[in-house]
């Protein structure tokens, strides 16, 4: 691919279908992509910063020959929507629940981050100073990536403006283009309060958002609905799917949906059995973001305890 960005690696999936896979230390954080329908270009998610989104827009215009006319926000989390302002001339589409969550949560969150810019700058300077004394190569590489990431946040904040979706849907929205059709589908809550995927049936491909993580630990939140997340993955597995583009990690296949489904099932079983073993199963040891496993354990154990306490009232 004749395109370079420090924020993402551009992967050509098929003619007119591109996945933008986030690079460590860049301003993307989550994955994104774009699709040429023949007469219009769709962007799927917009990254964590404007500078990463600018590169995505440039790539989309270069490889489709036109400006994006529609942007999809798969869910409300910042690493998938904070680049929206770069596409302000396009229609921005999400579920209504995603729109409401963005509108209710992000204004205060962004305002607080802007108010804390001096603290962020001081923290970055402290990390840079401490980085000089790190001797272990792997630790130094990880610290370099952390510093680079924080600098991207620092760079983005002064000009960051929340740009909300301009159009919403409930469960399905279909695009019919000259070259291909695409289906935007929401199964409701899963990773977030409401998640959407973009399915390209003729290409046997889906942009999965954060319903799919490939060889990196999924992140569970208070809002996550593990049971419905499993059902969502099972529903997509009924499609004629070959290529699955995750919200985090490298491009995968339908097999990776099954792997993540089984990962989540383990945690559901822990909750049901009220047993939370801390040792990570062998098959996940090579996955990135390993600290997330313990955070997920903590999340579901606290939710289980809260449910018990509520039942005793």
From TrEMBL:
Keywords: Hydrolase. SMART domains: Lactamase_B (SM00849). Residues 29-248 form the Metallo-beta-lactamase domain. The keyword Chloroplast does not apply. It comes from the Bacteria. GO terms for molecular function: hydrolase activity. It holds the Pfam family Lactamase_B. InterPro entries: Metallo-B-lactamas, NDM-1-like, RibonucZ/Hydroxyglut_hydro. The keyword Signal does not apply. This is Glyoxylase-like metal-dependent hydrolase (Beta-lactamase superfamily II).
């Amino acid at each position: 691919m004749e395109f370079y960005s420090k924020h993402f690696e551009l992967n050509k999936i098929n003619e007119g279908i591109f996945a933008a896979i986030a690079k460590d230390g860049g301003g993307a954080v989550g994955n994104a992509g774009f699709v040429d329908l023949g007469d219009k270009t769709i962007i799927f998610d917009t990254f964590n910063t404007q500078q990463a989104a600018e590169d995505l827009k440039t790539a989309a215009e270069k490889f489709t020959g036109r400006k994006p006319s529609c942007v999809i926000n798969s869910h409300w989390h910042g690493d998938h929507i904070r680049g929206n302002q770069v596409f302000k001339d396009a229609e921005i589409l999400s579920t209504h629940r995603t729109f409401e969550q963005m509108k209710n949560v992000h204004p205060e969150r962004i305002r607080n981050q802007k108010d804390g810019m001096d603290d962020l700058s001081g923290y970055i300077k402290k990390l840079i100073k401490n980085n000089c004394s790190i001797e272990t190569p792997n630790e130094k590489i990880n610290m370099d990536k952390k510093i680079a990431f924080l600098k991207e946040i620092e760079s983005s904040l002064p000009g960051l403006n929340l740009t909300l979706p301009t159009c919403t849907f409930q469960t399905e929205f279909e695009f019919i283009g000259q070259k291909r059709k695409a289906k935007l589908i929401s199964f409701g809550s899963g990773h977030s309060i409401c998640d959407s995927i973009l399915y390209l049936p003729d290409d046997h491909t889906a942009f999965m958002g954060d319903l799919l993580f490939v060889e990196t630990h999924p992140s569970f939140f208070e809002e996550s609905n593990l049971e419905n997340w499993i059902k969502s993955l099972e529903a997509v597995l009924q499609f004629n799917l070959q290529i699955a583009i995750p919200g985090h990690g490298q491009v995968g296949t339908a097999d990776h949906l099954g792997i993540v489904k089984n990962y989540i099932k383990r945690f559901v079983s822990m909750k049901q059995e009220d047993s939370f073993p801390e040792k990570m199963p062998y098959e996940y040891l090579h996955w990135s973001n390993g600290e997330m496993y313990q955070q997920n354990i903590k999340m579901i154990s606290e939710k289980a305890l809260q449910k018990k306490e509520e039942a005793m009232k």
